[in-house]
Amino acid sequence: MALLTVAACSDSDPRPAVSASNLSVISTALPEGAPGEMPSLMFRAVLDVPQPRDVSINYSTKAESATPGDDYLDTAGEAVIRAGELEAFISVDLLGDAEEESAETFTLELSVLGNANLVDVTPTGTIANDDTVCDTPYSYTENPWRVFGADPLNYAHRGGVIDFPENTLFAYGEVAVVGADVLEMDVYQTADNELVVLHDLTVDRTTNGTGRVVDLTLAELKALDAAYWFVPGEGTPHDRPDDAYVFRGIATGDAPPPPGYSREDFQIPTLEEALQRFPHNLINVELKPDLDGVGDYEGQMASLLQRYGRASDVIAASFVDEAAMNFKAVAPCVHTSVPLDQGSALVLGSLGDGVIPPVPEHVAFQVPPDTSQITGSGQLPDDFFLEVVTEDFVADAHAANLAVQVWTINTCEDMLRMMAFGVDAIMTDRPVLLEELLNTPADQRSCE
């Protein structure tokens, strides 16, 4: 009788059913390396919630523009996310060379065994070209950042300050899906000379931490919740009920991430992580002051962009003329915008019948619609006011073959007004709203 009882129990599992996890294998990029090198491109496979049993991922590489045997090693195998854990890695070896070439791609074909559902079934590996020497100033006949009468580019300012938790990989991923054309990000240097994506001098406004970025190490910054104070549709108010902060706790593992993302996507990212995640998106990086002056900030930025083959599809911008000149000296091939002091002189000189002379070392003006956005910053007298973006200014800039990229435009009315002036890009904290306008036929756009 005892034997029958044992047999009967073995036919069923007494453990309660567990909801399936979302499984994401995240696309990524890596420089190819020098001849003879074989760097490993690592795909991260991530569950949103842990499982009581192993989840196995069978994978194999599939060629796209990259050639197996020349650019990477064809690879097949199994990666296992162990019970109770959240991630595993899939490694593909790249084959370095010295050829100057465009970035090349391959994909992974995947199948899963275990209690998990794949979110993205074809993650892409991008092999970045790191062989082009960045020692020659760029030249162009037709400025690639001008739209020549078409709709302006949708610049997601910090990834969309009002729409998503700013300067996070989650925000940039979401605005890329929405259709934003350019991912705008600010870059500071940490106490241990790492480059991180963050707008403020301190972490206080956006995270659950406190202190200046320059005084904190990368490890200390990575321990913070970069979405801690974000409220959808509002930005980062610090006085809302706890349940308004809908992304709070994802970065620290106290809440599950949305499908397709991991908790790391809600931490402060490094610039390299952004370049790895978004190799095919236009990017605007704003250079911040090198506050300690010991980390070769501009040179480090230039080297990183070069390693990932980013020059003509990136704009390096700065309000600090010294930082802009230092960067230009070490990365003349990277597109740049006109810095503040030089730009102010050009704007004032173009008033009335004035013209803007050729500025071949830059590709764009990045300007506010008027000086009210910078009054009180110490850059201008408090009683000074000037309308910067006008039809005349746009015409003068275009005559000098410079794009006009205007910031920060957050209302429908102002977006339509900038479009009427013929600007080339609108930087906005509300890229979702701007994309809705851009997806509406021009003669039907309205703010009603």
TrEMBL record:
Residues 152-438 form the GP-PDE domain. This is GP-PDE domain-containing protein. The keyword Transport does not apply. It comes from Halioglobus japonicus. SUPFAM superfamilies: CalX-like (SSF141072), PLC-like phosphodiesterases (SSF51695). It holds the Pfam family Calx-beta. InterPro entries: CalX-like_sf, Calx_beta, GP_PDE_dom, PLC-like_Pdiesterase_TIM-brl. GO terms for cellular component: membrane. One of its GO terms (biological process) is cell communication. Keywords: Calcium, Repeat, Signal. The keyword Nucleus does not apply. It comes from the Bacteria. One of its GO terms (molecular function) is phosphoric diester hydrolase activity.
